[in-house]
Design brief:
The structure is a homodimer of 225-residue chains.
Chain A lengths: L25 H23 L2 H8 L3 H8 L2 H21 L8 H18 L1 H12 L12 H20 L9 H17 L1 H8 L6 H19 L2
Helix pairs in contact in A: 1-2, 1-4, 1-6, 4-7, 5-7, 5-8, 5-10, 7-8, 8-10
Chain B binds a DNA duplex (30 and 30 nucleotides) through helix 3.
DNA sequence: CTAGTTTGTAACCAATTAGTTATTTATTGC
DNA sequence: GCAATAAATAACTAATTGGTTACAAACTAG
């Protein structure tokens, strides 16, 4: 091509950013690298992911990937951090304090299940990261505070249920969260081997709906007095 | 080295195999390749595992690996099949028919948990295989019959408990197995990220024992009338 | 004892891979 | 308008990787 078109460039009358030039757009480039990397790492793991494949999926030159993220490992960590921020941010938006304790627990259990169902790449990334014993996650500083909020919410629901006399005295909020998460995570992340060896398609709509009800049932049964 | 020592070779007086030559021993070579491959695939996944690393771990020449197993993918499938045979074989040895229904379920839940705890490589292999949507497991023919036995055992326990009036009417044996497996699998396979984000070491002895009790409690609570 | 087969080794190869260099083009602060 | 800087491309490289070739030693059947 020759010179740039005068069309979509610079700032508009209000001094705000106009729509970016088709030729240069750092934010969009960065975002598309991150999105492409999320897919590639989720599908192939850290060891199986290919930097060239990420560049191609993102429609950018490989050099840009190193420009924005340093190297493959830092890119992977950025992907992982963004994935955690995604679920914890979505969690924030559910309001549990208006609900009865049992309803609140059920709501959180269903939220977790549905989030896992709609974000298979999150599950894959967790699997990959654990394969490597949290080697990269442990380097991340800015994640821990995200999780104390979740524990706080659960503790509050448990306290209210205990005061009402409907929940057991000795429920550990971490155990409760792990129970809900385990039931959703295992079913979805292992659906391929499970469907194969048990000869039942776990991805069918009816099976998925049945498992959601099962999760709520098991979770509540485990904490009721 | 020069000529072979006459020492440990050929057959003994009874015509049986004597202890193998130090120089040639196909069975031992094959077994050590399989053991080394199990470790390498479990630690690094299919994409991250290195054929050279397997050969080195096994203390054999890489050529032998191709001689016995064809290529990397067939070796991986052999590792996976052996891992499944391992757990299903161990399961066979527990006798549930002498136990009361509740005890039987508890026994199976504890067995599953302990097997997972003692065979982390099995969990890793499942994770890797599911990352690839059971691509290799689906090619395996000889695995399905292994699993119908397990379902049979569970159905029998559930029937007896239902007849006794202590279990609910509508329990799906597959759901029951998935519940026990999910609680063990998730805790162990995700222990590294979970310990990191929640700031609690899930591998501590007391935590592990607490989780075993939790699994039994949740499993039984979910099926009791 | 010997020819054929199996088990084993060492060195090699073509393809792939993470990361770089050299260079050009667009954008921005002054 | 213009120098400085940021964004982008294409081509390259050194190391690694899965798989192979050529060859040698050990075992077995007749």
């Amino acid at each position: 091509m020759e010179k740039a078109q005068a069309g979509a460039r610079g700032r508009n009358a209000n001094g705000e950013r106009a729509e970016r030039s088709a030729q240069r757009d750092p934010e969009r480039t960065r975002a598309s690298i991150l999105a492409a990397a999320t897919k590639e790492f989720a599908e192939n793991g850290m060891g199986g992911a290919r930097v060239d494949a990420i560049a191609e999926r993102a429609g950018i030159n490989k050099r840009m990937l190193y420009h924005y993220f340093g190297d493959k490992e830092q890119l992977y960590l950025a992907v992982l951090e963004e994935a955690y921020i995604g679920i914890r941010t979505a969690e924030k938006s559910i309001n549990l304090s208006d609900l009865e304790p049992e309803e609140g627990i059920a709501e959180l259990a269903m939220f977790t299940w549905r989030y896992f169902l709609e974000h298979p790449e999150f599950l894959s990334l967790l699997g990959t990261e654990n394969l490597h014993r949290a080697r990269w996650l442990r380097q991340s500083t800015r994640l821990k505070e995200l999780h104390s909020q979740l524990m706080g919410k659960l503790s509050e629901l448990l306290d209210r249920g205990r005061a009402k006399g409907i929940f057991r005295e000795d429920v550990d909020p971490l155990h409760l969260y792990l129970t809900m998460a385990a039931l959703g995570y295992f079913y979805l992340s292992n659906q391929y081997t499970l469907s194969t060896i048990f000869g039942r398609d776990l991805a069918e709509r009816a099976s998925l709906e049945g498992w959601e009800r099962h999760i709520v049932h098991v979770t509540l049964a485990s904490i009721r007095r």
